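Entry 14. Structure prediction run on the chain below.
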Amino acid sequence: MQQQADTYDYRQYDKIWQRVSPTLDPYPGVAPECATAKTPAVSAAVSEPEETACAAQTKTAAVADGLSCIEANPCCMGASAMEMLRVLQNFIEEELAAKRYYLAFSRQAPGWARQALRDMAEDAGAHARRLMAVHYLITCQCYQPSSAYERIYVGQLCPALRARYQDEVCRAQQYERAAESTSDPCLSKLLFELSADGYRHADQLMALLERAMRQQQ
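Output returned:
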């Protein structure tokens, strides 16, 4: 199974990611074999073990009618989705990084903003879990997120909300471009849904920013 998976040309995935986000290096400073999230600036410590979609025993692929899932060519999450694999891995890491940031942000934000930020952290974790489930559907292998023990700097409320707004809008646009880049209908539908969630988060962050600015007047 592993030998078969290694025959795919991962340079093709990186080219797709360049269409999704042409100005972003998908894995800065990391070997092509693994994907990492963007590391936030240093200050308040956060070291939270990340969730994994499956346990270690799922290293063996599920087999039906004598064919592995990679060989089976299903209607969805098959060869067309495989071309997006590196892009999906990068999205997983970005969502997990967003979850860690929102949790740190919620601890430092004023009381009226904390629940909204915790809800966004939960949404980011749910997005990562959905994407890891997609990864398993495509490959029959569990994606293991990068271990992250970064220190997260939040800073003042209004600049932090502005930064998160920009991050959510950019990721929503990346999901939209990725959805348009794949011919797999199920994967495209999921990516459009995640894009809509990103724009919804951006609207929530704008509302929080409006309240924060009103209180400063």
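The longest helix spans residues 185-216.
Filed with the rest of this week's runs.
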